[in-house]
Amino acid sequence: MDDKSSPMLEVKNLAISFFNKSGEIQAVRDISYVLNKGEVLGIVGESGSGKSVSSHGILRLTPDNGKVKSGEIIFDGKDILKMNAKEVQNLRGNRISMIFQDPMTALDPLFTVEYQLNESLKKHTDLDTASRKKRMVELLELVGINQPERRLKQYPHELSGGMRQRVMIAMALSCDPDLLIADEPTTALDVTIQAQIIDLLKELKEKIGMAIIFITHDLGVVSDICDKIIVMYAGKIVEEGTSRQIFYHHVHPYTQGLLESIPDIETDSSVRLKPIKGNPPDMSCVKPGCAFAPRCSSAMQICLKQDPPLFELDETHAAACWKILKEAQKQS
Description:
By secondary structure, the chain is an alpha/beta fold. Helices cover 33% and strands 22% of the residues. It contains twelve helices and twelve strands. The strands form two sheets. Strands 6-7-8-3-9-10-12-11 form an eight-stranded mixed sheet, sandwiched between helices. A four-stranded antiparallel sheet has the order 2-1-4-5. The longest helix is centred in the middle third of the chain and has 18 residues, at 191-208. The two termini are 20 Å apart.
């Protein structure tokens, strides 16, 4: 679904596979989406759905055993997949930054916060030593870290989990990126700190005006930060729409399953959560038909034989489901 305004990022028909002794694992299968300036896009799905692999592909961070088989990643009018190594290096951490899932492994335990922040500023800015120090203090203050001068002298293990994640966000913001990719940034944190990090990202989005891709397995986390949401399953987009459409007018059975599995603090503790039955498919042997069909209570014969197309319900809402497509055809 194309946006009428000039998009910041266009992912077109992207396919990424991994190769090992057993053969090919199709991690991302022909996905397309558009992200405009200042928008927040949520990419949601279970582990193995391809959401992180697709975002790592934007920065050309696919591991050595992985390969982008087809597609385009157009950022500000240029295809990242056709850039040379130097162009990609200049893009990373500068115009596009990433926050990784576990700050303890993303931050180097041997160096202080100051050293690690300074390295990014030295690489991507022309600031002198004093200006870089001032900028580092400003960044830590921006992400809500108190006593920034003291924190700069500390090592990652001396900080709490929430504090480490804030340092990671400060590093990602050090060069005022146009696009921030947040890969499961709250997964390793407790619920209270999760809420603080989400509020921080919302606040930073308003202050700086950057676009954000927020990757998570938990729809509940993205409910009030995202402008639009993509739901991925088995390497494909199964539903996409505005945040309101996904939460209140969703149509795909997988989206429904994800929403029903979110714990509700107001629900009686004796009420059991509704898990999605079965397991995600083995992507090393992709079978014909809809990948979700073996777990879907509404599956029909065609679902087992033919993969449904992603069809538009309206200008902003699309789904890949034979049942919904047939219902739409009956109404038209």
